[in-house]
Specification:
Blueprint lengths: L1 H23 L2 H18 L8 H21 L1 H4 L17 H22 L2 H21 L7 H4 L1 H13 L7 H31 L11 H21 L9 H23 L4 H30 L1
Helix pairs in contact: 2-3, 2-8, 2-12, 3-5, 3-6, 6-8, 8-9, 9-10, 9-12, 10-11, 11-12
Length: 302
C-alpha cells in the first residue's frame, strides 16, 4: 500500500512538473509560432518531407525558451495582475532562478536542433526574434502603450525562418507579404486584449491606451487598423503564392465576413462579451488564412 501511495505521489509530481513547464512555455502561443514557421516552410518548398521537422521544432523550442525567459523578466508584474498571478513563478510553483535555467536550456536545445537539422539563416532569424522579444519588446512594454507596434515584429519573423529553412530566397516578396500580414493582425488582436484587461495591465505597471483614449475611441482605432490588415490578406490571392481559385475564394469570403463582424464590433456596446467575441473572430480569421494557404501549397507539392 505504501509503495502504491509513493507511485501515485511520484506520478502526480511528474504531471505537476509537466504542467508547470507547459505553462512556463505558454504552449498555446508557441504552438501557433510553430504553425506559422511551418507555413513559411511549406510555402517556400518545392517538395515536402521530413526536413520541415527541424526548423519547426527548433523555432517552437526557441519560442518556448523566450516565453519562459519573459516570465522570469515579468514575474514582479505578473504577481500583481489577476490574469497572470497564477503563472508558475508568482504562484510559487517554480523559483525565478530555476525558471531562468529552464529557459536557457530550452533556448540552447532549440538552437542546436536548428543548427544540426536546418540552416544557419533559420537560426539567425530565430535568435533575432528571441532578442527582439526579450531584449526590446518586453522592457518597452513598461515604457509606452505603443510597444506592440515594434513588438509585432516578433510574430512576423517565424514564417520567414520557415521560408529560409526550405531553401527559398529571403528577398522574395511573397514571404514578406505573409510576414506583413502576421505583423498587422497582432496589433488589433492586442488592442482588443487591452480593452478587456486594461485595468489589470495597469495594476501590473504597464501603460495602456485605455489611459489615453475612451473605449469608443479605442474601438475606432482598432477597427481602422483591422481594415488595412484585411487589405494585406486580400493581397495574398494576387501575389502568386496560391495555386487554386478555391483558396482565393475562401480568403475573399472570409475577409468580407470579418469586415462585417468588425463593423458590428465598432457599433456594439463596449461590453466584455462583445470584445471577447471579436478577439475570438480575429484569431479564427488568421488561423483559417494560415491553414488555407498551407493546404493550398501542400495539395500542389504532394
Amino acid at each position: 500500500e505504501s509503495l502504491a501511495v509513493k507511485e501515485n505521489l511520484a506520478s502526480s509530481s511528474a504531471v505537476s512538473m509537466v504542467k508547470v513547464l507547459l505553462d512556463l512555455c505558454k504552449v498555446k502561443i508557441t504552438l501557433f509560432v510553430a504553425m506559422t514557421t511551418a507555413l513559411g516552410f511549406i510555402t517556400g518548398s518545392y517538395m515536402f518531407g521530413a526536413g520541415i521537422l527541424f526548423p519547426v521544432i527548433g523555432i517552437f523550442l526557441l519560442a518556448c525558451g523566450a516565453s519562459a525567459l519573459n516570465q522570469v523578466q515579468e514575474a514582479d508584474s505578473d504577481i500583481l495582475m489577476d490574469r497572470t498571478k497564477h503563472r508558475p513563478i508568482p504562484a510559487g510553483l517554480i523559483s525565478r532562478k530555476a525558471a531562468f535555467v529552464v529557459s536557457l536550456a530550452i533556448i540552447v536545445l532549440g538552437s542546436a536542433v536548428i543548427l544540426l537539422g536546418s540552416n544557419i539563416e533559420c537560426l539567425i532569424i530565430g535568435l533575432i526574434t528571441l532578442f527582439w522579444y526579450n531584449g526590446i519588446y518586453t522592457p518597452l512594454k513598461k515604457v509606452t502603450p505603443f510597444a506592440i507596434i515594434p513588438g509585432a515584429l516578433v510574430g512576423a519573423l517565424p514564417p520567414v525562418a520557415g521560408w529560409v529553412a526550405s531553401g527559398a530566397n529571403i528577398l522574395s516578396p511573397q514571404i514578406w507579404l505573409l510576414a506583413l500580414y502576421m505583423f498587422m493582425w497582432q496589433i488589433p488582436h492586442f488592442w482588443i486584449l487591452v480593452m478587456i484587461y486594461g485595468d489589470d495591465y495597469e495594476k501590473g505597471g504597464y501603460p495602456t491606451l485605455k489611459s489615453k483614449f475612451s473605449a469608443e475611441q479605442l474601438k475606432k482605432i482598432t477597427f481602422f487598423w483591422i481594415l488595412p490588415t484585411v487589405s494585406v490578406a486580400l493581397l495574398i490571392p494576387v501575389s502568386g503564392i496560391l495555386n487554386f481559385n478555391i483558396t482565393s475564394f475562401i480568403i475573399f469570403a472570409l475577409s468580407v465576413w470579418f469586415i462585417f463582424e468588425s463593423y458590428k464590433f465598432l457599433k456594439a456596446p463596449s461590453e466584455k462579451k462583445n470584445l471577447f467575441n471579436t478577439f475570438v473572430r480575429i484569431n479564427i480569421y488568421t488561423l483559417v488564412i494560415i491553414t488555407s494557404v498551407s493546404i493550398d501549397k501542400l495539395v500542389k507539392i504532394l
